[in-house]
Fold these 2 entries.
Entry 1:
Amino acid sequence: MPLANFIPTADDYLRYLPEIILTVVGVVIMFLEAVGGERRKPALGWLAGAGLLAAIWGSVVALGVGGTGFQNMVIVDGFATFFRILVLVIGLLTIVSSTQYLDREKANAGEFHALLLFSIAGQCVMASANELIMVFIGLEISSIASYILAGYLRDDRRNNESALKYFLLGSFATAFLLYGVAWVYGLTGSTNLAEVRRVLMTPESAPNLVLMGTAAALMFVGFAFKVSAAPFQVWAPDVYQGAPAPVSAFMSTGPKAAAFAVFLRVFITAFGPIATRWEPFVWGSAIATMIVGNFAALTQTNIKRLLAYSSIAHAGYVLVAVTAHSEIGTAAAMFYLAAYAFMQIGAFAVVTWFSRQGEKFVNVDDLAGLGERQPMVAAMLTIFLLSLIGVPLTGGFFGKFYIFRAALDSNLVWLTVIGLLNSAVAAYYYLRLIVVMYMKEPGAATENIGPVSAGLRVAILGSALATLVLGIFPSLVLDFAGRSAALVK
Amino acid sequence: MLDAVFFYTFALMTLTGAVLTITRKSAVHSAIWLIVSLLGVAGLYLLQQAEFLFAVQIVLYIGGIMVLFLFVIMLVNLDEAAKQRQFNNQRWIALGCAVIVGAEILYVLAKGTASLSLPAPAAAPAAGGNTEQIAVSLFRDYLLPFEAASLLLLAAIVGSVIMAKRRA
Amino acid sequence: MNLWLIPIFPLLGSAINGVFGRRLPKQVVNLVAVGSVLLSFLWVLKTLSAAWPLESAVKESYFTWIQSGNLQIGCDLMVDRLTAVMLLVVTGVGALIHIYAIGYMAHEGGYYRFFSYLNLFMFFMLVLVLGANFLLLFVGWEGVGLCSYLLIGFYFLEKFAGDAGKKAFIVNRIGDFGFSLAMFLIFVNFGTLDFGRVFTSAKSMTPEAGVGVITVICLLLMVGAAGKSAQLPLYVWLPDAMAGPTPVSALIHAATMVTAGVYMVTRSAALFHLAPVAMNVVAIIGLATAFFAATIGLVQNDIKKVYAYSTVSQLGYMFLGCGAGAFSAGIFHVMTHAFFKALLFLGAGSVIHACAGEQDLRYMGGLRKYTPITMITLLCASVAIAGVPPFSGFFSKDEILAAAYEHAPWMYWVGVFTAGMTAFYVFRAFFLAFAGQYRGPNPHAAGHGHGDDHGHGHGKPHESPLVMTVPLMILAIGSLAGGFINIPKWLEPMYPLAEGPENHMLVYISVAAGLIGIAIAFFLYVVKPSLAESLASALSGPYKLLYNKYFVDEVYDATIVHPLEEGSRTVLWRGVDAGVIDGTVNGVGARARGMGNVLRLLQGGNIGGYAAWVVLGSLLVILYVGLGVGR
């Protein structure tokens, strides 16, 4: 075979540009970390941010030459680009919101940023994967980097516990995913998503539905774990509580969005023809996830843990959109994940600032009197919480609105009813935070509270602005999501 | 017939090795059982006339990686680890769950195999083995996953360095 | 034509000052704040000259804003002749007030924050005016409201400023509720919120077709307008709103925001034409407000309060014009009022500035010696508002009164009487401030004014810096000559003028009323100052009633606020909430929390247990698929 057959085309590289940029910048950061002095450390954060911006540009360039590349390994379409840009923006917000934290905890910044970039590169791979092997590799890159980020402060006991739990359980769940991939390959003779779909659509060669359903179920276990859907959500509260706050913000948004991206792509593209097999258990999981997340959050006193449960509940809402299994369902899920990312990161950014060194103040009652001492921050946190509840004029409202409308369009009446009831329960624990902030006398935690660093301020204001913009001009994002939601060409 | 005998022998080797790897108390014993398990896998490759994979499995996994494993194991404090309880009370629940999952999968397979349309066996590879086909697979069709996997390994290496490094 | 640039400039200014303002030097903050408004003014001029003579509306659609079912709302901006007038007033007067504020706010804390809010206000006001559908108008409407609360409460350290902000917020909620209901009804009836389509289908309706619903819509719109434009009975927030810095009073609570209600009613004229009853209600509310507020204005001592009630009263005139069918006269008055009322407030600010924060007229006097420019410009504004020909107020008020006469003669007479009172109280304030001797405290005592406490009590009253007086002079020219801009003629294609012979007698009467008012004020406060005192004590009953603003605030407190508080405390809280709801909710809550506790048991923290859960879950999922064999 001539050598030329082995050399990818220039377009192939362009379609993979964001991942290439992220990898290169990550490696450069590692290098500079080794040769640069202590004084240059802050510059690494800037470099990482620049890398992410370049990768966003790269995603746009990649969309310009959209299509499949590298022998059908990656697919660059609107859907992939949407999630690539989403995780890149999440990365940017994480970097700006972690500067103060890393300084405060005297943690090494270089490796943190490099790992963050690697993790995001993995998520970009997931977003554009057109092949189960790419899905697996992307998932693993993203996960391994996040396992380490979760335990980034080595000397912190909770960090260690968090990382270890995440690692062991994550590997366990990935094994299910991989087993499912093996089944799919065995049953259809391919790991390419479009090819799997084609085989399933051809009546003569279609494998037994039960076997195929089992393969889908096994892969579902892996994805459900990554998006923290019930009953595979048990790890999330411990891990999010134990990990550094900016990392928790990242883990509960970036990997989750990317995991939903591959979840949607695999189940709608490849397993679309056998939807009757998988819809019921996704349906059940959606209900269980919403109920477990919301009801468990009611009794939490630790804010990080509360946000962890709330993050589980929100995964449940997105699962409702997945169950709808329609184009508007996909668009709703995309919109929701974007809106959710901003409010969750914003809320965690406030917690990052508030908790102080060693994360001393992370209880709900510590927020008492914040509205009086720091009205601006309290107002921002209020915006995030209102959005998490789903109050109009915030992104959360339109997110829920579109999801439940998609569910109704697919005749999922009971799912919608249960989802709405759950949103009502959720209002209780979010409002409790607002009540504590504004109606309680300031306590020890709000005394002598330091200023919000410039980085955190950018993260909080940026997230708040995005939350409001999504709530007031949902079309800006929804139009693009709607146009990109057609996964099956 | 002979193929079947070899297949079951290697399969048994793989599974027994895997089970013993996680049940032995001593880490060294575990590592050795892992080698047995990997050898079984290598045998399965050979059985499918994938000589190159067989060789790679032996050289890389058994020769290289396992030796590294053993080095690491001997460096860490084994006595401490040996004293720890290996299982807790939930092992029976876990075992029960695992057995049920296994039973379920067997059941599903039993139900489904009948309708499974197995493709005809692949033609025997041309003389010179299938090494070239692997090259095409690895460096053309699956070039990107192959390269992406290096990023995965890089992240893992960085992680292990961070975990191992003492704080200055 | 890039209409979107018009509002976007102030938005950028607001963002820049809001985010970086703390670190920027004052000059840069000034440059950004004023520059953005000036740019937007220039863009308005460019747009208008490009679209001249603007015989039909220019509309630009940018994107679909909200799409849900058959509700489709675009982000559309539109310019027609009505918008053109509003745009010029908002950006032109706005720019002058921004410049003035540089001088006025020079010594205040939170300088950048102030300008950030002020620019944000400009953005929303321009959205309100440019929006081509009701929802976009509503966005601007709510936005200007928000900025208004922020700016009223700008001195948030002082309790009454915070209270005033809260009051404005609550009262406006009532109005906004009416407006939103009106929008729902419009959508239900017309299937769209787009101005063009709503009004086109309204024009093809016969007055009988949808009389009931249209009347309800118009009345609800009027409720909204009454809230925003401070009409009876929702006017109470505006006088308190003077707690904000004076440039805010001038820009938001005199020249622009409060006229949004008039704009909205005029914009919806096609609907109002179908609902004569609603028109009548508008006219009566306007007239009553004009009269009522003018009587209160007669006796106030705080210079800003006088002008505040005068604003309420003038807004009443504008609604009277609209209600009488002379929409263009209403808008004409919006424009002239923007000139002279902005000037009155800015002049008052200059006076307050001169007296180191003093706002009470009783402690002023004789300022003509110290602040000549302020005095002359204030005189221009006063003659304009008093309706002395040929100054601006004369023309617009005359148009309104003529229309009122056509509508119902008694309205004309009440209007004329009110015009007389207007002339009186404006000149009363003028004479008290500038005539006679300085009655202020010892020059060395620090200013003890309440609202605008500058705290730099330096010596004698002094003239304001040039940055403040130049805008005053420009506005003075507008107040004097603005009446020659024939707005009704300009708006004629949209709002046809009433046919009919001009009745010169009506003009003479109203001019005479104004002159008599001025004369009485001159007599009472310049010629015989002692007479005013004795008159007040002789008529102490009515005087007290007026001075205390008819005790409306107290009445509201006693009849609405207090019972609500009490009721919510006893009935809602103790009875319903604690008893019924808490009972149920605690039941539900206890159950929910009980469930939460059960769920917590799953969370033992043991990693093996967690893994068991994962296996259990997969067990269930596979079990489900496996059992589906037969199907």
Entry 2:
Amino acid sequence: MSTHRIVQTRFLHVDRPFRLESGDTMAGLTIAYETYGEPNAARSNAILIEHALSGSAHAAFHHEGDARPGWWDAMIGPGKAFDTDAYFVICANVIAGCNGSTGPASPDPATGRPYGLGFPPVTIRDMVEAQRLLLAELGVERVRCVAGGSMGGMQAMQIFCDYPALFDSFICIASTMRHSAQQIAFNEVGRRAIMADPRWNGGNYYGELPPEGGLSVARMIGHITYLSEKMMQEKFGRLRKGKDSRAVFRPSFEVEHYLDHQGVAFVRRFDANSYLYITSAIDNFDLVSSISGPSRHRGENRMRGKGFDTMRRKKGLVISFTSDWLYPSQQSQAIVRFFSGLNVRVSYAEIPTDHGHDAFLTDVNEQTRLVESFLSSLDA
Amino acid sequence: MQKVPGHAHDLIEQWVEPSSRVLDLGCGDGSLLDRLKRSRQVDGIGVEISQDMIVQCLSRGLSVYQADIDRGLSQWDDLSFDYVILNATLLVTHKPYDIITEMLRVGRYAVISVSNFGFLPNRASVLFRGSITGDVRAAGTWHDSPVIRFVCLDEFRASLREMGIDIMDARHFLPLGIVTRTRIPLDNLLVREAVFLLRRGA
């Protein structure tokens, strides 16, 4: 449609070695990214958007010929929460992902064949470090706000802590400073589903049939955790689809069809190895130990306690959803406590909703009101 | 909410030391906190239950925390604040004792404003008209008013004594714009509203 705003994913190729938190080095990497809106003369109106587990750089607008807009189009655009008439909005695909940035499906320069499990383990910090290179490349030396939900919230907090001088504020939605045992457990079941699929073949399936069965089961588990019990009940209840249920163990309940659909749709656009790498990065994420532990390789904040002063009086907004049992409100409240302790001026809102964890993608109106008023109060 | 008289804000502004840390419980649209931030350079956080009010506070650039204060202040460590303010909010709470106790756990001083149900016109309304005045109920009627508690000044003072809380300072608002610092005879009858500066007893 002619009213659609069109965007193209662009690519930054970094030819220098990229050192990971683990100490491993990648010979180079590619970062897929998109931008919306225009930088102002002082390049001081940037907003960095961080995507969640299955997201991509395509956060808003439309790709040419694609009927579906980016994953957070409801929040990013002219007059929207992240107003592209006022801000220069940037979103990059995480490394280890499979939507344009270097990941396990990318060719290993050493062999020319896909990395597979030869891809080094990456952390949330590595993901944002790659984005730091992108910001430098774009000439952005000051970011008004870094924002994201779920894993995007983890990245937002990490980069805000690693480069406090670069960011005026952060917005963290439906996230946590570290996974609980339950959260790790759900991810592990997803990973096991992939690895139990014979087609996975130790991660070496490129050019052959990918482990779609395992990946779709992983996605189905994920989707159960993204919805609230109440919403599932209201949406599906015990409704059945199709009259013919002679065939045993074929999906007949609506909820089974829904999960099946989610799983099938996912395997078309996501790489199983990326799912393993990214969920591991999420499980290993521990914000407090990452910024207060012994010297690391990353960030201007690498020395213990240093940079905390830079964070003083910066602003944060933490949002949770009442029915989100995957990332419950207590975890967001702990984030507020932590940043308040660092003298960051943190605000907290808990949005009442039945939509569970997915609310960060669906409950746009309340989030828009909060984000708009928060951004409007930041000093220009 | 109850009518928030500007004079309570004036008074609280006088009490609050410059550059102190302030927690404002039931901060509403943040007008008091905003004022304290400007005139007293306080480092303040508001607590509100209403999403609309949270949005207004954010627009003012205030730090605000969405929570039901009846569920406690466990989010904050002991003595995190110099002042914890409960202005025009006490009578809408379910657990006033717990809240006052929590206020003096997380703050050095508590500032609490109380509407006096014993105020003569309130009594007269019950006696002669057989109804509670609209002022007492703020906006609303018996079944939908946010005000769920009615307390007389004497009762409130007795509660403070019982809880071992010291009154450091107080202002009593009488009709005709009269404000007294010290207690006057028959104050349980004559005072419309009082504001207390409180501290945990030694």
